[in-house]
Design brief:
Blueprint: E1 4-10, E2 13-19, E3 24-28, H1 43-56, H2 74-85, E4 92-93, H3 94-100, H4 107-116, E5 128-129, H5 141-150
Parallel strand pairs: 4-5
Antiparallel strand pairs: 1-2, 2-3
Helix pairs in contact: 2-4, 3-4
């Protein structure tokens, strides 16, 4: 399967969507090195890029895109399912996500699942926060704060 790419410019940098004709395989964050955009990205990649652009413009609050299968554990898939259920403009703690994923003592593992999430923003791992503040984010604290602020959420340190 041939991969194709599309880029989206946001106030915090350039994001790159990667995928095939069957769905998205990855979203590169601004700090990551990504391949150049394809002259004619696949339909799922172009569709996801348009939706991400609308999200950054403040006109989209959820995503309707095809995600490709990826190598992950059942728990990671459970966490990502929970993340997709978190509404725009809301946050949940690592502990709460662990509870919703059926493993109440696995808050640390939720952090690892978030870090392994190949589709940031689309599978909104930025909506997971620590019980005492922001928590980590693979794209960095500035990007996480921006994404949450875009959604109207303010999290104290």
């Amino acid at each position: 399967m041939e991969l194709s790419y599309a880029t989206i410019t946001s106030p915090v940098g350039t994001w790159t969507v990667e995928g095939t004709e069957f769905g998205l395989t990855r979203v590169f964050m601004p700090h990551e090195t990504a391949p150049a955009a394809s002259p004619r990205p696949s339909i799922p990649v172009a569709h996801a890029a348009r939706q991400l652009d609308e999200y950054f413009a403040g006109t989209r609050t959820d995503f309707d895109v095809s995600l490709a299968e990826t190598s992950a554990t059942a728990f990671q898939y459970d966490v990502w399912r929970v993340l997709r259920s978190l509404p725009y403009g809301s946050v949940a703690t690592y502990r709460r996500v662990a509870e919703l994923a059926g493993r109440p003592r696995a808050a640390r593992a939720v952090g690892n699942a978030n870090h392994a999430n190949p589709w940031p923003v689309i599978v909104p791992c930025h909506r997971v926060v620590a019980s005492d503040g922001l928590g980590g984010y693979g794209g960095g604290e500035e990007v996480k704060r921006y994404l949450l602020a875009l959604e109207g959420v303010e999290v104290n340190p």
